[in-house]
Fold:
Amino acid sequence: MCGAKEGGLSLDGVNVAKEAVIQGQVLRSGDEPVANAYVRLLDRSGEFTAEVPTSATGHFRFFAGDGEWTLRTLAPKAQPVDTRVVAATGSVAEVQVLVSA
Amino acid sequence: MSRENSLVTAQWVEDNLDTDGVVLIEVDEDTTAYDKGHIRGAIKLDWTTDLQDQVRRDFVNKEQFEALLSERGVANDDTVVLYGGNNNWFAAYAYWYFKLYGHQDVKLLDGGRKKWELDSRELTDELPTRAKTSYTAQEQDSSIRAFRDEVVAAIGTQNLVDVRSPDEYAGRLLAPAHLPQEQAQRAGHIPTSVNVPWSKNANDDGTFKSDEELTALYDEVGFDTDKDTIALCRIGERSSLTWFVLTELLGRKNVKNYDGSWTEYGSLVGVPVALGDEPGEA
Structure:
């Protein structure tokens, strides 16, 4: 299996057909990747489900379940940003998160 | 124990980077995180290779633990300060592990690596050198480690606290959502276990909530303080963090961590499993 077209992180070895993937990139000032951000995945009730640090290119990925989720992004010297996203098994939801400069 | 004895702030760590007798140790789920940058002077413990037996599913034994710490240059009277990513999940696991083998002075960096990074404090890729020591461990303290038979016996009789996320507890997810979901074991939870996700212990920046907030959290779900408690999650690392809160911050007695956790229980033949958001009946 080849890696995902977008997202920057390889999906090699993961059976994407069985996963509800949420992935994307955290950016500052429009196009500058944020490598030291933390992205939290919150469920429908706002409860924490998972958290990942962003990669050197600002990318992150979750294996969620079907339904609505919220991404809460924390980055140094920036306010937390909440982003709604819908995930579905067998697809990859791409998200771009912009944090304040 | 208390917050003062078991927790240090990021500022305390920064002020004590050069203090003799203080050993910083990073333990991460992502075992490459340290190599990309760590707090100056910190050594690394790899939870998969350093702390686990490489053949059986179990911890390294007393002699192996002694050899490990001797080789890394940790002495019996050192103050060990643990920190890591994932809100200290694996640092708390190592904390519990150090207690299991009787290390006296262990502390967690409140907020772990995340708090340190969000504060924009310095990380380095320089590797420290420490002189070898001759470390002596105690026999494992069985009063803080639960095994599967006592977990099954605890159904309906002890406080069982499942600290996974609500979706894992209910059986809608099989693993934390930063990991692929395909797993061998069944989904769900141990009947009568209550779900207090580990994350309710912590603020967004990874620091622990106040003692008052933490006390209220466990009162709310009807924790019976007269009963013994077993904490579990998927592989025993998030439940180490809850064990830390209950034992070290709140001073509760008779709390055990079940490191077999759901990957063991959910694979056992013939044990009861509950699905959905309610604890279920014994």
Observations:
- Chain A has no helices and eight strands.
- The radius of gyration of chain A is 13 Å.
- Strands of chain A lie at 20-28, 32-33, 38-42, 48-53, 59-64, 67-74, 81-87, 92-99.
- Chain A touches chain B at residues 14-15, 18-19, 36, 38, 40-41, 43, 45, 47-53, 56, 61-65, 72, 74-77, 80 (CB under 8 Å).
